[in-house]
Amino acid sequence: MGFASLNPTYPAQPNLPDSTQPTRLSTRNDEKEIPQLKELKPTPPINTIIQSVCNEFGCNEDQVKTRGRKDNKARAIAMYLARDLSGVSCKDIGAFFDGISGAAITMKYNQMNAELMRNKKLRDKIATLKKQLLKI
Fold first, then answer.
1. How far apart are CA 109 and CA 51, in angstroms?
2. For residues 115 and 120, what is the distance between their CA atoms, to the nearest angstrom?
3. pTM
């Protein structure tokens, strides 16, 4: 019995999926055991995220991008989704949102996480936005 009979034959590798199309693993949460899972998830661009948030909240992109207004929920949600879905660094996200620091993006993300734990209506709205952006 030779080595050829011991080694299974593997089919040719299929084409890699488009990064915007959901894959079976893209619906799973990030896990330490599968570090490549982030690479398989679709990553919508920040412009697309902002456009979806604007459509959901009935505002324009300038209101979301520029800073200065207190309690701008659409801006906070856009920052949260950009950090969560886009795969872009916090520093670059901050530059996109009128030059705020990466630490401010992280703080806003943590504030939104805390609010999502308390507010079911907001959690449902963000889940809807994520489904639209990831096309799940």
1. 19
2. 9
3. 0.71
